[in-house]
Amino acid sequence: MVSEIPLRVSAVFTRNKVKAAPVIISKKNSKNIIRALIVNSGNANACNGKYGITDAKKVMEAVSTETGAAAGNIFICSTGVIGERLNVPLIERAVPELVKTADKSGFHDFAKSIKTTDTFTKTASSDVTLNGVKYRIIGTAKGSGMIMPNMATMLAFIFSDIPLKKETADEMFKDCVEKSFNSITVDGDTSTNDTAAFFYPDASGRPEKGADADYKKIKNALFKVCLELAEMIVKDGEGATKFIKITVMNAHTESGAKKTALTVANSPLFKTMLTGEDLNWGRIMAAVGRSSVPLEPEKIDIYINDKLIVQNSSVYKGLSKSEEKTVLSPKEIDFKIDLKCGKKKWTVLTCNLTKEYIDINASYRS
Questions:
Q1: Which alpha helices (H) appear in the chain, and where do they start and end?
Q2: How far is CA 355 from the centre of its chain?
Q3: CA-based nearest residue to 187, from 356, 4, 342
Q4: Which of 136, 176, 172 has the alpha carbon at shortest distance from 156?
Q5: CA within 20 to 30 Å of 299's CA: 39, 70, 250, 269, which one?
Q6: Domain ranges in the chain with CATH number 3.10.20.340
Q7: 5 in helix, strand or coil?
Q8: Measured between alpha carbons, how far is 151 from 149 in angstroms, rounded to an integer?
Q9: Portions of the chain given CATH number 3.60.70.12
Q10: What are the pLDDT tens digits along the chain (366 aa)?
Q11: Active site includes 153?
Q12: CA distance 365 to 357
C-alpha cells in the first residue's frame, strides 16, 4: 500500500512477550506519519535474533527506494512460519513491480496476498456521511489458526479517508478492537505477530472524542468493519464447521464476563462436544467454574439458541430427547451463560475443533 497523502495510524500489537521483528519496528513507526505499508505472508520473521530486524530493514529500504518514503514512515508486517529467515532477495526483486502497478483498484489483490491458511479473502466496508460529505472505511484481515489476539496469526488493516486526530482515533480503535479482534478465539494461541492497524488522514481538529455525534457515527462504522472481519476469521478457523457465539451475562464485571466466556471458548472438551453434537453441558459448567471469576455456583443458567438447557446449575427438565439430539446441529450456535450475580456482560466468538485442525497443524511446515 502506497499513500499519495500523509497518513496517521492507530495500531494495536500482540502482547506476547516474544515479538516478531516487524512488530517491534512498526510499533515504533506508528508514532510517525505513514506513507507506505508492506506485508509478506508465508514467513513471520520472528525468533531470528539480530537477523530479524536486519532483514526487515532491508525490505523497508527497498520500499523506500521505490516510493521515496523514509524508513520511519513505512509500516511493515509479516505472517507465517516462525523461526525461519525471511527471503529478502525475493521480496527486494518484487518491490519495484509492486510499487509500479499499485493503483486504487488493487485492494482485493492486497487482501488476497496476505492469506496463509485462510480459505477465503476477508474484506469489509462501511460508509459514513459527515456534514453532507460521504466517507468510507474499508478493511481486510487474515487469520485462521493461532488465533486468540491479546492486544491471530492475525493481521488486520483498515483504511479510511476520514481526517482524524490521532489521539481520538487511538481511543476509538482500541475500544473497537477490544470488542472485536480481542474477543475471538480459534485455538487459544496468541501469535508473535498479531497486528491490527487503522490508517487515516491526519486532522488537528474534529471530531473530538466523547458525545460528539460525528465521533459516534465514525466509531459505529469502524466497529462494524472490525466485527465483520473478526467474525470472518472465526468462521474460517482451521478445520472449523461451526461458528459459535458465547455471551456471559449478569457477571460482576465486564472483565470477569470476558474471562469466563474465553475459558469456555478455549476448552478442548467444549469444542469437541460441538463437533460431535453431543449435549454434554457439564463441560460448560466445569469451564465456568475454573475461570476463577467470582460467582454463585448454584445459580447458573445456560441457554443454547434461546433454549433453556441448565437452570440454577442443574439440568432443565423441559428439553425433550429429540431436542437434546438436535440442539447442537446448527452451523451457527448462540450460547448464553447467565451468572445471575451482577449486571455486566461480554460476548466472545469461537468455533469447534475438528480432526482437520490437527491435520493442518501437524504438518504446517512440511
A1: 21-29, 50-67, 88-101, 107-113, 166-178, 213-235, 254-265, 268-276, 282-289, 321-326, 355-362
A2: 24
A3: 356
A4: 176
A5: 269
A6: 243-362
A7: strand
A8: 6
A9: 2-233
A10: 999 999 999 999 988 899 999 999 999 999 999 999 999 999 999 999 999 999 999 999 999 999 999 999 999 999 988 999 999 999 999 999 999 999 999 999 999 999 888 899 999 999 999 989 999 999 999 987 666 666 545 899 999 999 999 999 999 999 999 999 999 988 877 778 889 999 999 986 555 554 478 999 999 999 999 999 999 999 998 889 999 999 999 999 999 999 999 999 999 999 999 999 999 999 999 999 999 899 999 999 999 999 999 999 999 987 887 888 799 999 999 999 999 999 999 999 999 999 998 888 887 666
A11: yes
A12: 14
CB within 8 Å of 76: residues ≥ 6 apart = 22, 25, 26, 29, 37, 38, 39, 56, 59, 60
Report the candidate in 72, 69, 60 with the shortest Cα–Cα distance to residue 35: 69
Long-range contacts of 30-34, Cβ-Cβ distance < 8 Å, separation of 24 or more: 30/75, 30/197, 32/72, 32/73, 33/6, 33/7, 33/8, 33/73, 33/202, 34/3, 34/6, 34/7, 34/8, 34/9, 34/73, 34/74, 34/75, 34/199
Pair type for strands 332-338 and 243-251: parallel
Q: Of the residues 117, 121, 153, 190, which is catalytic?
A: 153
At the second CATH level, the architecture of 2-233 is: 4-Layer Sandwich (3.60)
User: For the structural domain made of 243-362, what CATH number should be given?
Assistant: 3.10.20.340
Those residues whose C-beta lies under 8 Å from the C-beta of residue 320, and which sit 6 or more positions away, are none
